[in-house]
Design a protein that fits this description.
By secondary structure, the chain is an alpha/beta fold. The protein is built from 11 helices and 12 strands. Strands 3-4-5-8-9-10-11-12 form an 8-stranded parallel barrel, surrounded by 5 helices. Helix 4 runs parallel beside helix 5 (159-168) and helix 7 (235-254) packs across helix 8. It is globular. The two termini are 37 Å apart.
Length: 331
C-alpha cells in the first residue's frame, strides 16, 4: 500500500486507516471474531493506523485490538488511542476528564489492555473545558519522555486549541469528521492544520453509512446503534440525504466503482496530509474500501461529485445537539 506522512513530525502510515470502534460499540451488534479477522486482513494489506478509544465498549475495543495484534510485529501497527470520555455502567455519557493525573491513569489502563509497552498516538477524545489544553498536552509529553507514548494527536478541536496545543508539543494529527456530507473543516481548521504541519485522520468518511450505497429509508436501526439518535438519520432528513447518496451512486456507477469507494476516494483526494479512516467491521467491507485507493478521480469526476453532493447540502447536523455542544471544532 502507498503511504502518507502523519503530519510533519509523525510516521509514514498506510494511506487508509481502520477505525475499530464499531467492532465493539455504538453501531449495534458486531461479530468479534470477524472484527479480529478484519484487523488482521487490514494489516496484511498495508493498513497501519488502527484507531480505538479506551471508552469504546468500556475497554472491550482495546482488548479486541490486542487480540488481533497478538503474535504480530508490534511495529506493523500505528495504534491511535482516544481517552477522556467518561461513561456509566449503562453506557451513558458523563462528560470528559483531561486532568494530567487522569491522563496518566487512562494511559496506564490502555497499555495494560492493549498488551503493549507504548501507544503510538495518544489523544484526548474531546476538549475538557475545565482543563487548559496546555496541561493535557504537557501530561502526554511526559508520557512520551517516559517512553509510554510516541506521538500526540487531537480530536475535534478548533483552530485556537490547535495553536495552543502545538505551542506546547508537536501535534502529529487531528482526528475529525470529514466527508462529502461534513465539510466544516475546510474553511478554518484545515488551513491551520496545514500551517502547523498537523495531519488529518478523517473519520466518518461514509457519513456513518449514508454514503455506503447500502442504506435505505426502510432499514431498521437496532438498539444500541448511535444512528438511532443521529439527526441525519431522522425521518425528516433521511430521504434528502439518501437522495444525495443516490446521486453520488450514479457518478460511481459511471466509473465502475461503488458509492462507498467514490466517497472514500474523494476524501483521500483532498490532500496527501489526509488519511481516511474506514469503519469496516468485516473483511468484505474492508476489501471494498481498499479498492478506493485504486480509484483516480479526474477533474471531470470531481465536478460530477460536487454536483451530486454540493458542500453544505446535508440535512441535519452531524451529531445530536447535546453532543454538538461538546465539539470545540464547531465553536
Amino acid at each position: 500500500m502507498i503511504t502518507r506522512p502523519l503530519g510533519a513530525t509523525g510516521p509514514a502510515v498506510g494511506a487508509l486507516g481502520l477505525g475499530c470502534m464499531g467492532m465493539s460499540d455504538l453501531y449495534g451488534p458486531a461479530d468479534r471474531s470477524e472484527g479480529i479477522a478484519t484487523i488482521r486482513a487490514a494489516l496484511d494489506a498495508g493498513v497501519t493506523v488502527l484507531d480505538t478509544g479506551d471508552f469504546y465498549g468500556m475497554g472491550d475495543n482495546e482488548l479486541l485490538v490486542a487480540e488481533a495484534l497478538r503474535g504480530r510485529d508490534r511495529d506493523q501497527a500505528v495504534v491511535s488511542v482516544k481517552f477522556g470520555a467518561l461513561r456509566d455502567a449503562d453506557g451513558g455519557w458523563l462528560g470528559f476528564d483531561c486532568r494530567p493525573a487522569a491522563v496518566k491513569n487512562f494511559a496506564a489502563y490502555s497499555l495494560k489492555r492493549l498488551g503493549t509497552d507504548h501507544i503510538d498516538v495518544y489523544r484526548p477524545a474531546r476538549l475538557d473545558p475545565a482543563v487548559p489544553i496546555e496541561d493535557t498536552i504537557g501530561a502526554i509529553a511526559e508520557l512520551i519522555q517516559a517512553g509510554h507514548v510516541r506521538h500526540i494527536g487531537l480530536s475535534e478541536v478548533g483552530p485556537e486549541t490547535l495553536r495552543r496545543a502545538a505551542a506546547v508539543h508537536p501535534i502529529v494529527d487531528l482526528q475529525i469528521e470529514y466527508s462529502l456530507l461534513s465539510r466544516g473543516i475546510e474553511a478554518e481548521i484545515l488551513p491551520v492544520c496545514r500551517e502547523l504541519g498537523i495531519g488529518i485522520t478523517a473519520y466518518g468518511v461514509l457519513s456513518r453509512g449514508l454514503l455506503s450505497g447500502r442504506w435505505s429509508a426502510d432499514r431498521s436501526i437496532q438498539a444500541g446503534d448511535f444512528r438511532g439518535h443521529s439527526p441525519r438519520f431522522a425521518p425528516e432528513n433521511l430521504g434528502h440525504n439518501l437522495g444525495l447518496a443516490e446521486a453520488l451512486g450514479a457518478v460511481a456507477a459511471a466509473r465502475g466503482a461503488s458509492t462507498a469507494q467514490v466517497a472514500i476516494a474523494w476524501v483521500a483526494h483532498q490532500g496527501q496530509d489526509i488519511v481516511p479512516l474506514v469503519g469496516a467491521r468485516s473483511r468484505e467491507r474492508l476489501a471494498e474500501a481498499l479498492g478506493a485507493l485504486d480509484l483516480e478521480l479526474s477533474d471531470v469526476d470531481l465536478e460530477a461529485i460536487e454536483r451530486a453532493v454540493p458542500a453544505d447540502s446535508a440535512a441535519g447536523p452531524r451529531y445530536p445537539e447535546p453532543l454538538m455542544a461538546h465539539l470545540d471544532s464547531e465553536r
